[in-house]
Amino acid sequence: MHTPLVARCVRGLESAVAAEILALSTQDPAAPDSAAVTGLGHREIHFVTSGSMPFLRTADDVFLLAARRPDIGPAREALGALTDLVTRADPDTLLRLRRRAAPSADLTGVDVSASFLGRRAFNRYDAEDTVGGALARRLGVPYHSRRSGEPAPPGHWSWRLTLDGTDATLMPRAHERPLHRRAYKGRTVPGTLHPPVAAAMAARAELRPGAVVLDPCCGAGTLLAEGALIRPDARFLGLDLSGDAVRAARANTRGLPVEVERGDAGRVPLPDASVDRVLCNPPWGGQVRAGGALAAAPDRWWRELRRVLAPDGTAVLLLPGPGELAAGVGLGLTPTHVQRVRVAGAEAFLVELRSADRPSGRPGRTGAPARRARSAGVRFPAG
Questions:
Q1: Most buried residue, 28, 151, 153, 321, by most Cβ within 10 Å?
Q2: Cα 145–100–25 angle (5° rounding)?
Q3: Mean pLDDT across the chain, nearest whole number?
Q4: What distance in Å separates the CA atoms of residue 25 and residue 3, rounded to the nearest whole number?
Q5: Domain extents for the chain?
Q6: 195 CA to centre of own chain
Q7: Overall pTM surpassing 0.90 (yes/no)
């Protein structure tokens, strides 16, 4: 039996989520056809699986596909037609599938979150309450309206309603809580990175066993944690000027192969060519301003990245605009991928760069300079 599912994601990460879904089939040789992508849309990927409910690191959430009908259009008078979605759904089957992913979850009620494209004569709460009331009556449980701004009580089953101009789609959450809420992330700092974006960056870097991976502006350690969860047999190093960030990163990466110290990204305490991969969301004056050596000379960030990166190394960065690449290109870094994403309501670019002397067209490997650095016991000085 193939279960139809919908993954929701940050705008721009649709292809990354689709790639992760397709990789599910190759991870289980006994079930080569266990997952297949059936469609891509605005911030969503439709797919089917015959296996267990997947935990997708690059997705914000995964939903069961309950029902779909034509979009009702902009008129407020058409809201009542959304109850047709509830009539078409099969709540008993959906509840059984959800309990496969969250067997201990009690069902104490339902809540609905709606979004739509285009101008409408109604707001999201009008749509949510129309569908939520019908769902509650069908399931025989209370409905919690988001109109009040209060979070739903524990045990409520969250449903998603989308109106994209073509279709109206109703979807209950497959897991007990949203996938982007990582269990490890108990501490945050200003500018902390959205975990699915960090996971997409780590996946893009093609981390290898034994690789040395550096984040010179690590913040709360989200990139380090996502990388270490993907590749626990690599070694991850984080730097940050903020003592609060260092403490948060250490707490969030506890138990993972991650070392975090207080330090300046403009003066990285590592030898030349000692790093195989750089993963970073640099502070370019948005939520976090550059400090230390970078405050007076921002281009030092690029010079230090180029200095510590191995000859066959790769850097995967989140930049506010493609114009930031000029300094890196001038130092001999070659952009091999530029992807527009939307993070926290702002446009950004997920960029992959390789050392100019790295042969193109083949996966990265752990470089000899980095191996020599590891054998010499490269580590941060005591903070």
A1: 28
A2: 115
A3: 87
A4: 14
A5: 3-172, 195-375
A6: 4
A7: no
